Amino acid sequence: MFHFIFTALLNGVAIWLGSQILNGVKVTDFPRAIIVGLVVAILNATIGGLFDAIPSPARFISMGLFGLVVDALLLMLADYFLKGITIKNFWYAIGLAAIVSFVNAVFHWLF
To answer: Pick from 17, 53, 94, 97: CA 20 to 30 A from residue 62's CA?
Structure first.
């Protein structure tokens, strides 16, 4: 349970950081980014598992890059349902997914 909460908070920080770096991603404020991070973590734990299981040959062929597509789709789904976050298009969602993945990888490697 602690791992899930830590990942959700880390996702929120990474989403806020991504909104500061990418012009096509807007988050109204930091608490909203934490909420979006929590929603993305819940989506990743539920729907993301289905997305990961279906295209496993695509993930193998693309050497894992298809995971960014799945994460971008989940971010766009969160954008669709939540107020306070705006992702301009799919390519900005890919960029945000890359930032979130990078931040998660660094923090999980350090801790």
So the answer is: 17
Task: Name the residue range of residue 78's domain.
Answer: 2-105
Beta bridge partners of 26: 86
Residue identified by tokens 């997305």 is 51
Alpha helices, H only, the chain: 2-21, 30-53, 56-61, 66-81, 90-110
- Residue 110 included in any domain: no
Cα–Cα distance measured from residue 34 to residue 100, given in angstroms and rounded to the nearest whole number: 13
pTM here is 0.90
- Domain for residue 7, yes or no? yes
Which tokens in the block code for residue 26?
Answer: 């807007």
State the pLDDT at residue 55.
64
Total domains in the chain come to 1
